Every structure is written in structure tokens, then in C-alpha cells.
Amino acid sequence: MSIQISQSQAETVAEVHELVGLTALTDRLGAGQVPTGAGIGILQCESDGGPDTSLPDFIGKSFTYPAGSTNVSDHATTVAKWMCGSSWSIAPDVADIFVYKAGSFLFSGLLRTGQGSSAPLSPADASIKVMNHSWIGQLAESEDVQVLNRYDHVILRDNILGMNGRANDAGTDSRLLAYAFNSLTVGTTSGTHATADTPSDFDGPGRMKPDIIAPGAFTSFSTGVASAAAALLYDTIQSDSVLSADPLAPRAPIMKAVLLAGASRDGDWTNNPVAGSTARPIDMTQGAGLMNVDRSHQILTGHRQTGRLTLEEAPVISLTGFDYARANPGQTKWWRFSTAVPLEEVSIALTWPRVPNTTTFTSHSLMDIDLELVKIVDGVAESIVDGVGSGTYESGNHQSNSQVDNIELISIRGLAPGEYAIRMDRMNSTQTTYGGLAWLFIESDQGPLGDVNGDFQVDGQDLAMLLSAWGSDDPALDLDGDGTVGGADLTQLLSNWS
């Protein structure tokens, strides 16, 4: 067996907190009101060794070794600092850490690989909500297939979110545990990690990994940051009166969707849509984007809003929220919304689990679900045709329809005012499944180009104002910035006519 730590560009603690949205979350909620991961346990799996528990960052924390080594490892120590360190982590009050050695985790310590139909053990404590795997490796191919099926089964059975580091570079790319379906595989902000699709000769070929990125000196440490983000969100559930009363809120597919939809995307991010449609839902290097706890916290505290089987019955959803939608074969689920102002950003993520065969753990069922944003015109859903070309939005995709990934993502900039609906279509299989759906809509504080009077519409009033300033150098009406209000500005205004 080959097992390595997954290691790549460093950021300071303050920079990490800024990048992943902790600073923004603190500004929005106020000091002392931010979830800290208190009461959430983390399983830390290492290639060998454990953290140096004598350090000040770990005072008051409990380290248990159900199947791990007490030997001190610098690698494990740094991972733990990002996961739960009192001065490093975005979840500084995580106090219960359960250390496993990778080899033990794969076999007798938890997954029970090679033990036929024997189910994996449960993690050591009910407080464990996150598994952190900052290692890479692989066994024989047939064993790896079983490992990943067993790992995905544990995530689904026990509602624990798994975080796995992708290899630091293409030369060290490995199957475990990066190729799992039900967890999140994490890359680093440097972008130096492996990015190739899962290979054509392995179980579940052609899928995109990583799923998401986080800052850190190495992908091992990025994974630790990601685990802390998950712990913060699980703490949010237990401290919010609505979420804590909702038994579905902690489901792993929901938490995964909340993190994916909440990820921030810079100008280089793309899922390469053609006329607004893509079969490859995330960016090849950045996945869904950079993990952001402020945005994901907003989604989670928007609470669950239940989709319906018909557009007429669909709920009118708020700017943020999530659902855990049951999808029978051939079914469609709907959520609707309207906006009187342009939406600066629309982010919608859908993810659902593969279901391993628990007799052999060598095969699985994977459903296919498509995701689409449609317009509502006179009460009827209409597909968007070429969202950019039609002026419906400035950039992005309104349709995500991968046939191999268990993630779909809609990412739009500059959605025009109007009535819309989210549509989730179950495409295949005879099995029922549940999808975690999460969304974030950010309203613009500016109207489209040509909205001179600031009413978020480009209409006759704006045209009259532009014509009255014809030939002048009025900067408010010189839309193309050439120093003169003229024909080019008129063309700009008319192209955005409401």
C-alpha cells in the first residue's frame, strides 16, 4: 500500500480568515456571535502519527486515538491547527478530535475493507460530524473500489461530511480518497494540485475533482481549513432554533450543497457553458470555487424551503435557503422566485449520493439529476435560450446536466429582473433518491447600463434623459466614456431596453 501526505502556496492566518469569509461573517453577525465549532467532533485521519497536543493551540481539547498513533507528526500538528487550533482555526472551539491512522481506518479500524458483507464500523463518537483526510494513497484497484464504496456508505449512513485532499500535483495523483462520490475533495488556492478527471478505467470515470478549494500551504492544510468550515456550519445548525428543530438540516448532501453554493468564484472561474448549458458543472481547477463560510452561513440560515411537483404549487423562495428534495424516477421538483432588481449573482448547487451495494461493497447505484433555471412568462415556465445572447443574464450558465458527476451547479452574473423558477429533473433509474439543493441570490445595488434614473429599468424616461443631454459631456449619460453623449451611448441604452 502506498500512502502519502497530500501537500502547495501559503497564506497567513489572517489571510485565510479573510479568504474563507470569516472576517465578513464576523462583520455581519458581530463579535461573539459567530459559530465556533463548539460541540462538534472531528475525525482526523493521518498517514502516521498525530498532533503535538502539548502546544498552546490545543489547550482544553481532547485527543482520542481509536485507531491512531500517539507519535507526534509535524504534518498532523499543522493539519490540526487549521482544523481546530485556538489561534489558527476558523472553528477554534472544536474540542474533541479522534485520531485514526490511514491504514487502520481503511481496514479493521473503521471501513473493514476486505471483510465481505461486514458493514463498516461507526466512527468512535456520536459528536463526529466531519472526517478530515489529509493523505493520499492507493491499494490494488479492486480494493480501492471497495474502500470508496465503504467510505461513501459511512457518509450516507452516519450523516458525516468527509473532506479529502487531492494530490498536490499530477505526478502523485492517487485514487484514495479523492475519487469518492459523497464527500468533498479539496484543492488549494494555488491551483497546483492534480486536476484530471477520474480515469476511464476506474469506478465512476470522467468525474471532475476537486469539488472545491480552500487556502493553505499544502492541500493537506487546505483540507483542514475545509473541515473547520464544515464544523462552523454544523455548529450553526445546533445554535439556530429553526435548524436545530429540523432533522433534515444536518444531512450530508445538504451540507455539501451549502458549501458548494456558498463558494466564491473569481473572474477566472468557469464551467465553460455553451449557450448557457454545461455538462461539466464546475471549474476544472477550482471546483465550485473558494470555500466561503459567510455565504454558506447565509444559505443555511435561510432555512429549508420545500419544493413541489408542479410550478403552481412551488414555494416562493427567499434570497438564500436549501432543500432536501425527494426525487422519484421521472419526477420534476420546482422552486420559484421573482426579483424587481438585477441579481448580481445567482449560485445554485445540487448534489446527491451514490448508494453502495452493501452486500459486496464493489458496486453502486448512481442516479442522474439535471438542474435548470427557467423563466416564468404569464405563469408558464419557459426555457432560457442563450441567456447571454437574449439579455437574460450577463454571464454564466442556466443549465447543468452532467451525466457522470453527482453535482450540478448553476452560476450566473447579472440576472435581469423578472420571474424565474429552479427546476430539478430526475433522469434515470428506478430508485428514489434525495438531493441536497442550496441557493444564494445577491441583489445588485446598480441597475443595468442605461438605467440613468436608478429605477432598475431601461425605458423611455432614461431615453428622454439621454436625448436631453445629446452632444454634452455629462458623465452620467456618457455611457461609453468617450467624452460625448452621442450615438454610441444611444446604442448601449437601447441594447439593455427593459
CATH 4th-level superfamily of the largest domain: Peptidase S8/S53 domain
If you consult CATH, what is the topology of the largest domain? Answer: Rossmann fold
Work out the number of β strands: 22
- The CATH architecture term of the largest domain is 3-Layer(aba) Sandwich
Structural class: alpha/beta
Tell me the strand order in the biggest sheet.
3-4-2-5-7-8-9
Percent helix? 10-25%
- Poorly predicted regions are 5-9
Please tell me the total number of domains.
3
Report the portion of residues in β strands. 15-25%
Quote the distance from N terminus to C terminus. Answer: 63 Å
Describe this structure in words.
- The chain folds into 3 domains: 238 residues, Rossmann fold; 167 residues, Jelly Rolls (Sandwich); 36 residues, no CATH class.
- The protein is of the alpha/beta class.
- The strands form 5 sheets. Strands 3-4-2-5-7-8-9 form a 7-stranded parallel beta sheet.
- It contains 11 helices and 22 strands.
What structural keywords apply?
498 residues, alpha/beta, 3 domains, 11 helices, globular
Write the layout of secondary structure elements.
Elements: E1 2-5, H1 13-19, H2 22-29, E2 41-46, E3 62-67, H3 74-84, E4 96-101, H4 102-106, E5 128-133, E6 135-138, H5 141-158, E7 161-165, E8 184-188, E9 212-214, H6 219-239, H7 241-244, H8 252-262, E10 277-278, H9 293-300, E11 320-327, E12 332-339, E13 343-351, E14 355-356, E15 364-365, E16 369-377, E17 380-382, E18 395-396, E19 399-400, E20 407-415, E21 418-426, E22 433-443, H10 460-468, H11 487-495
Parallel strand pairs: 2-4, 2-5, 3-4, 5-7, 7-8, 8-9, 10-19
Antiparallel strand pairs: 1-6, 11-22, 12-21, 13-20, 13-22, 14-15, 16-17, 16-19, 16-21, 18-20
